[in-house]
Every structure is written in structure tokens, then in C-alpha cells.
Amino acid sequence: MKKNNPNLFLAKSVVDIYNLNPRNAEKNIQIASKLNKEENLTPTINTIKLITNILNFKLGRLIKI
After folding, report:
1. Which pTM does this prediction carry?
2. How many C-beta atoms surround the C-beta of residue 26 within 10 A?
3. Positive or negative CA dihedral for 12, 4, 46, 39?
4. So where are the chain's domains?
């Protein structure tokens, strides 16, 4: 898989979300956003970004960071 493929970084972000690591997910989402050239991928990026933000909020309240 090519390193300039936004789908690769979106997949990594989903794995990070599953592993409760939203900070790494954010990094991968930002890279995917920069690499994205397909308009139909934008809603997926936004949805994963929203899930990451919710997870950050919930974990922040649990851990009090």
C-alpha cells in the first residue's frame, strides 16, 4: 500500500480508536485529511474525527488529564 494513500491512515486511526489511543488517531486523521483528494472520502474522515473527539472527551473526564 502506498504511503500517500489516505485510506491507510484512516485505517490506522480506526485501530487507534479501538485501542483507546485517540491522540495517535488524531495524527493519522490529520495526515489522511492532507492526503485526501477524493470528495467522497471527506464524510468518512469527518466521522472518524468526531468519534476521536468524543473519545478524547470521555477519556479526559475519566482520567482527569
Report:
1. 0.81
2. 19
3. negative
4. 6-63
